[in-house]
Design goal:
4-stranded antiparallel β-sheet; alpha+beta
């Protein structure tokens, strides 16, 4: 037998410049089948490296939410109507990731709001996903890699984006929302020494109420 060298995906060089948490966000939930699904999805994206100019796909990373993968039946929204299916609750993980990505200054490239307002994030700050059809993606436009680390405790999920502080150029980032709860407009605002240096329009959403889908 001849041994084969398999190079590691994450090398010391990849993470040598990572020195801080550049973005983090937490949301909260109740234990149960939905909470178990959140735990599975959160752990699937933990310890993932996104190199410079790479695009991260939530669906490609987490995989299909099936019984074989350990997911349970919980509440979902299908075609605008409340329902139950395997993987209910996973959208809370993608939404938490979306907020962490925004606060880290990374670039969302694919994001879809829910039909209805989510209870675990503010209006305009959710990101729904569905197997094979709706994904959440972001791109790392920094000069250095970023590294995802998640914590799911049974009542809270926290997602941290670890990166190189120099890539932020001394900026801090906040998310601000205008409009109303059913039609929110979301901006990302960059501050430096307390002064606004950049304001970035992100999107304007439209939410529906359950009666909009009544027969």
């Amino acid at each position: 037998l001849e041994p084969e060298d398999i190079l590691p995906f994450v090398t010391t060089e990849d993470i040598s410049a990572i020195d801080s948490v550049i973005g983090t966000y937490s949301t909260y939930y109740y234990p149960g089948d939905r909470g178990d699904n959140i735990w599975l999805a959160a752990n699937a994206i933990s310890h993932k490296l996104v190199k410079s100019n790479w695009t991260f796909s939530f669906n490609d990373t987490v995989g299909e939410r099936t019984w074989d993968a350990g997911y349970k039946v919980a509440g979902v929204i299908i075609n605008g109507r409340p329902a139950e299916d395997y993987g209910g609750g996973v959208c809370q993980v993608s939404s938490t990731l979306y907020n962490a990505v925004l606060l880290a200054g990374l670039t969302p490239t694919e994001r879809t709001p829910h039909f209805y307002q989510s209870t675990y994030v503010a209006p305009g700050r959710d990101a729904t996903v569905a197997d094979g059809s709706i994904d959440f993606k972001f791109r790392n436009d920094y000069n250095h890699p970023v590294y995802l680390k998640t914590f799911a405790s049974g009542s809270a999920v926290t997602i941290c984006v670890l990166g190189t502080s120099a890539d932020l150029n001394g900026n801090t980032i906040a998310i601000e929302t205008g409009g109303d709860a059913m039609n929110p407009t979301v901006y990302r605002v960059y501050y430096n020494n307390g002064q606004v240096v950049k304001e970035e329009y992100l999107h304007t959403d439209k939410y529906y109420s359950p009666k909009d889908f009544e027969d």
